[in-house]
Amino acid sequence: xxxxxxxxxxxxxxxxxxxxxxRLTTSIQDGVILPGQKLPAESALIEKYGVSRTVIREALxxxxxxxxxxxxxxxxxxxLTKPSNRSxxxxxxxxxDISDVVELVDFRLGIEVEAAGLAAMRHTDVQLLRLExxxxxxxxxxxxxxxxxxxxFDFHHSAALATGNRFYAxxxxxxxxxxxxxxxxxxxxxxxxxIEGSRFGRICDEHDxxxxxxxARNELAARAAMRLHLVNSRERLRLRV
Length: 241
Description:
Blueprint: H1 16-29, H2 42-49, H3 53-65, E1 69-72, E2 76-79, H4 98-122, H5 125-139, H6 145-161, H7 166-175, H8 199-215, H9 219-239
Antiparallel strand pairs: 1-2
Helix pairs in contact: 1-3, 4-6, 4-8, 4-9, 5-6, 5-8, 6-7, 8-9
Organism: Spelaeicoccus albus
Protein name: DNA-binding FadR family transcriptional regulator
Keywords: DNA-binding, Transcription, Transcription regulation
């Protein structure tokens, strides 16, 4: 039987990259490619869809931005999670002051402590590497609040992805980086001394403890580490420190 032609038409309503994203997303959604598995090589995707390398790389970039895949130089791209057909609609614009954000942290405690325990039991090697990268990126940006917030959110999103349950990740995506409150006055590191022992350093240590517990597949320790981090975050917000 002849192999079905999957070449993408250039006269559609969407860009070529969007069409590649849609087809790969469908393959992941339908279980053709499972979480933890490697996507076909760029050359195979080029041949399969009849598009250029530039189009394939743009599509992979979009899938990465959506939290569906992680790409490693020299190794390829791996599926992180199965995409959801719908997303949560909790509006982060509702968080207007510190009291709102404190309430959000209370809400996150009920979600992310359980997520950390599930991540410890279920994570794949690819998901764990993404978590490690996010923790390292946070520690590397003590003087760059926007980068620190991005890395902090990526860490919590990565932990949610590692649960293997797409609803945890969907919820965090609906909140977005606005759920992370990391004011400049908390980024007091080497200006007054080394990162170790500083407020920012302690925040990084808390993330490292979560990562270590998940990496060790220690469910109870992962839950405890996430709980401690979020409780400390809540107290830092209340005390404005």
